[in-house]
Design brief:
Radius of gyration: 22 Å
Distance between the termini: 47 Å
Order of helices and strands: HH
Length: 111
């Protein structure tokens, strides 16, 4: 099995990566306890697990040093994010004609 964090090869029965320590097992989002493969409820806290995400896939990502470019000293990093998009009626048309700070102040008043 290949680790999704560091790409190290691990034994198929391993529960953590031998190189970086990434856990290969699913954990309860409530208590953090380890979950059996087909669990519908956490055996430690009883939380229902109907919406439990799939275990991490084995993805090969280059080491951080390989992500450096001559133009920058920062490191590239891949992260999974959730984005919420909200649309305000006529926002683009109105904001194109206004100063950025005025747009920000107007939007802050809505929240």
């Amino acid at each position: 099995m290949q680790c999704s964090r560091c790409a190290a090869e691990n034994d198929a029965a391993a529960s953590v990566c031998v190189s970086c320590g990434l856990s290969f097992s699913l954990r309860c989002p409530g208590c953090g306890g380890e979950l059996p493969a087909a669990a519908r409820f956490c055996p430690a806290c009883g939380r229902p697990l109907t919406a439990l995400p799939a275990p991490p896939a084995a993805v090969v990502t280059p080491p951080a040093e390989a992500a450096r470019t001559p133009e920058t000293t920062s490191l590239a990093e891949r992260r999974q994010v959730t984005v919420l998009f909200s649309d305000v009626v006529n926002f683009t048309m109105q904001s194109d004609k206004q100063d950025a700070e005025d747009v920000r102040d107007r939007m802050d008043a809505l929240w």
